[in-house]
Amino acid sequence: EVFLPEEPRAAAPVDFLQELPSYQSALRRRAAAGGTQERRAAPPGSAGLRAAEARGPEQEGGELAARPAREYPLTIAEKRRLRDCQQADIKYISGWKQWKRTSSKSLKKVLNEVRELLSFLELWRHDIHSIEGKFGTGIQSYFSFLRFLVLLNFIIFILMFSFVTLPSIISKYGIFNSSFAKIPPKNIEPHCTVYKPSGNMGLVYFYTYLKDLLSGTGFLEVTSLFYGYYTIDAAWLSILRYNLPLAYLLATFAYLALSLLWIIKRSVEGFKQNLVHDEDQFQSYCNKVFAGWDFCITDPNAAQLKHRSLQYELQTDLEEERLKRKIADRTMKEKLRIYSLRLFINIIVIAVLSGCFYAIYRATVFSQENSNVSIGHDIRTDSIGAANLLVQYLPSIVITLANFIAPQIFSFLIRFEDYSPAFEIRLTLMRCVFVRLANIGVLLFSLWSQISYCATDECKACGYNYELYPCWESEVGQEMYKLMIFDFIIILAGTLFVDFPRKLLVTHCSCKPVQWCGLQEFGISDNVLEIIYGQTICWIGTFFSPLLPAIATIKYFLIFYIKKISLIHTRKPAARPIRASSSNFFFLVVLLIGLVLAFIPLGISIAHIPSSKACGPFRSFNTSWAVVPDTILGFPTGLQQVLHGIASEAFAVPFFMVICLIMFYFIALAGAHKRVVEQLREQLMMVRFDPLFCTPKV
User: Fold this and answer.
1) CB contact at 8 A, 17 and 23
2) Is the pLDDT higher at 370 or at 577?
3) What is the pTM of this model?
4) How many CB atoms lie within 10 A of CB 504?
5) Cβ neighbours of residue 46 under 8 Å, at least 6 residues apart?
6) Is there a contact between 482 and 214 (Cβ–Cβ < 8 Å)?
7) For the segment 427-447, what is each residue's pLDDT rounded down to a tens digit?
8) CA Rg, the chain, in Å?
């Protein structure tokens, strides 16, 4: 008898968990899904009680009927009684609350109609839904990701054009009574300011225009496409002074920040969906068996492919379980053998990467030395012009070959490392991501080594190799331009000269070797790596070529239709597709890695390498970043002191400590939520055994 009063205390944690919103929502879902019979068996007064509970929160908060009756997990009769009660209670509330309630409903209705109208204006809405119906959500996620990049590049183009290109054009042509000012660089040697673009003079062949269009030289070099065009220091629009160098730098930071925030926002949404599928093997098996079918599929061939996909996933799960048992039963001798083999294979991988990097470095150095020599000559013959174009495109060709050969080697070597199938795919993809993005870094490093190389005192006075690179920013922009153009040419040529002939051979040739090869699979991951590689080039090149996002927008717009035609007519879906939720999250994570890697060369170019003294908006500054402290010096003294205080260590150290404390708080909060979720999962498993959890507490 002494221990009887302690029983309610033992149930306290359960009562606490039952008060959580997640537990209440689980009860509502359970009641809506399978509680029909219980409601029919309940006493007559229970309906009114549940309706009163549904209205209770609104009445306590002072807002009546904030939620419509259809959103409550009640029967039709109960919803009708609830609606009658809500309408009867309207006469007892004040006029202000009635107007507020009516305005809220009207605004919500208008927003829903606008949202529905905007959905019809969504880019490629019908095409993506058609692809989803024929090939499932996995391939649909790739085309949705491509649409996201089109919109992202279009917004970046609008940003750079509005704040950089448009003011320069308006001021140069005197539109809206505008003017511009060019301030000559001070304390700069005269030979550092000499820049003679390789524009076409006199009679020009059509081939020369085509070569310039492909390489970014000639007539394109003096257009607003490249950095060297923006030589204005200030633009005057009526009485307003527009600081173009500061706007150029801030626009660069703005498009990087916009890309980062947008990707993080979409990544968080994908991460939430990915967490739902991150369960133990038993729950994963149940999800595949009972909820694995994609009801968007309407095509019979796609349905058969989905059957094979589910079968492959189940086989993969069984194979992973077999490998786990095999790993647990390994002897010390077997572990030593497999680890030694993996070490040896990783050494081979490093050797392959080193070979690719060295080949790119040598090709870049050779291309820069020989193409710069050839630019100054008057090229008239087609053979010499073709050789010069080949020399200019040599780094792009070598990078493309490295991006094609290295993944094939990685896919072959991964078979001998004895990993699980899922880990094999992830490791191979990460190696491919690394080789693609690192190749761009090696190209830029090769360019910077040539730009920074100075052997004479005249060169050291300028801070860079002014003889080969009088406007080195435009040279880097041309390399990024050539990489983007060549990448599009490779994608188009692969579809026209590889996929279509292969489709014709498989369709009209009955030879066993041809039928054994079959159609090429539409690999989602490989195609995603292609466009992420191009997007990383766009992020890096936009600083050196402000209109490059417009080219990227057109490129991805055309790639959408190229890939759509290739998918429908010349390729078949992959036999090993990946889930849409995990694929979306993986795409955005790899894209985020590409963006972070783009920060490194841009940061070095802006803050470390001296800016060109013969072209560009930063020719009056030692580096591009120097425009920021120069602008701050024009502020009032009080504001200068505030900004210097924010940039000092006295502010940075406490701010960093506060950020760390906030981060630790959220980490602890996330851990607490995780433990609560685990407890709720345990309660859900105990529902069928413990009557305490079978009925909600009234």
Assistant:
1) yes
2) 370
3) 0.75
4) 11
5) 39
6) yes
7) 887 888 888 888 888 888 888
8) 32
